[in-house]
UniProtKB/TrEMBL annotation:
Any matching Pfam family: GspH
Main location, first listed in the record: membrane
Gene source species: Psychrosphaera algicola
Domain General secretion pathway GspH: 49-159
Keyword Transmembrane helix: yes
Subcellular compartments: Cell inner membrane
InterPro entries, sorted: N_methyl_site, T2SS_GspH
Keywords carried by this UniProt record: Cell inner membrane, Cell membrane, Membrane, Methylation, Transmembrane, Transmembrane helix
Protein name (record): GspH/FimT family pseudopilin
C-alpha cells in the first residue's frame, strides 16, 4: 500500500535560491537607500533655512521693521553655530540681539547632525528690501568624505535667496 499524503514545504535548493536572490537585492538596494536618506535630509535642512530667511525678509518689508535670523541654543541669545535652532525676531533697537521687549516671530528647529556653517553670525533684513549684510552663504555638508549632497544657500545683499548645487562652489572644509 502506498501512502498518497503530499508533503508541503521547501527543498533545500529552493531555499538557497531564495536566499541568494534576497541577498543580491539587499546589497544593491542598501547603498541607494543611504543616499536617498542623505539627499532628503539635506533638502530638509535647506528648506528649513530658506523658510526662516524668507519669513524674515517678508516680515521686514511688510511690517517696516528690521528682522534678524540667528542660531540660538536657548531661544534668547544669538550664537555663531548654525547647526543650532534658529530664531527670527524683530530687532527694534537695531543692535542685532534679542532684548526683552522684542518679538520673536518664529523659532525653527533644525537637525544638527550635519555640518552647517555660515559666513555671517546672523542675518539682518531691513524694511527697505535689503539684507543688512553683504552677501552671506550658509553651507550644509552631510559628511567630510563626500560632498555630492552638499548644498549652499546664498543670500544676496538685497536679501534674495538662491540654492547652489555646484560642488566646485561649495566649501565644506572647516
Amino acid at each position: 500500500m502506498q501512502n498518497n499524503v503530499r508533503r508541503s514545504g521547501f527543498t533545500i535548493i529552493e531555499l538557497l535560491v531564495t536566499l541568494a536572490l534576497f541577498s543580491i537585492i539587499a546589497t544593491t538596494v542598501t547603498p541607494s537607500l543611504g543616499n536617498f536618506y542623505k539627499r532628503n535630509r539635506v533638502a530638509s535642512i535647506v528648506n528649513n533655512h530658506i523658510s526662516a530667511i524668507q519669513l524674515a525678509r517678508h516680515t521686514a518689508v511688510s511690517e517696516n521693521v528690521f528682522v534678524v535670523v540667528c542660531p540660538s541654543s536657548d531661544m534668547q541669545n544669538c550664537e555663531d553655530d548654525w547647526a543650532l535652532s534658529k530664531i527670527v525676531f524683530v530687532d527694534e533697537d537695531g543692535d542685532g540681539s534679542l532684548d526683552g521687549n522684542e518679538e520673536i516671530i518664529a523659532n525653527i528647529e533644525m537637525v544638527n547632525d550635519y555640518r552647517v556653517a555660515s559666513t555671517r553670525d546672523s542675518l539682518r533684513f531691513a524694511p527697505f528690501n535689503t539684507a543688512q549684510n553683504n552677501t552671506a552663504t550658509i553651507t550644509i555638508c552631510p559628511d567630510e568624505e563626500t560632498t555630492v549632497f552638499s548644498r549652499a544657500i546664498v543670500i544676496s545683499n538685497v536679501g534674495r535667496v538662491r540654492l547652489e548645487k555646484d560642488q566646485a562652489e561649495i566649501d565644506c572644509t572647516d
